[in-house]
Write a structure and sequence with these properties.
Helix content: 10-25%
Strand order of the largest sheet: 3-5-4
Order of helices and strands: HHEEEEEEEEE
Number of domains: 2
Strand content: 15-25%
Mean pLDDT: 83
Low-confidence stretches: 25-29
Distance between the termini: 59 Å
Structural class: alpha+beta
Radius of gyration: 24 Å
Number of strands: 9
Length: 120
Amino acid sequence: MRRLLISLVACQALAACAPAKAPAAPSAPVAQSGPSCAASGGFLERRGRLGAELCVHRYADAGKACHDKADCQGRCIADREGGLPAAGEPASGKCQADDRLFGCFAEVRDGKAQPGLCID
């Protein structure tokens, strides 16, 4: 009986050592050629810490005053006078300039700042 118990414990220990599936690697932004980017109404620009060349599309309402995402084509980004506002604090913002947002920012929803976020 003792041998059986030892065998079961040993099998469980070995099973715990089995390799787990590796998490999927994050996908890199898809590169788009200059002509296809221009055809879609965008322009190529290097962005982010890696300087990846991305196809960027400007929003028609870029820089417009907003109090919620519903006011914008993109996100409503909090004004950064003196740093990011505290989450939950009343805030006003401006509509996101384009579809490739990088850096640190806080969104505004229902006139209140959301927690800050940094995108590289």
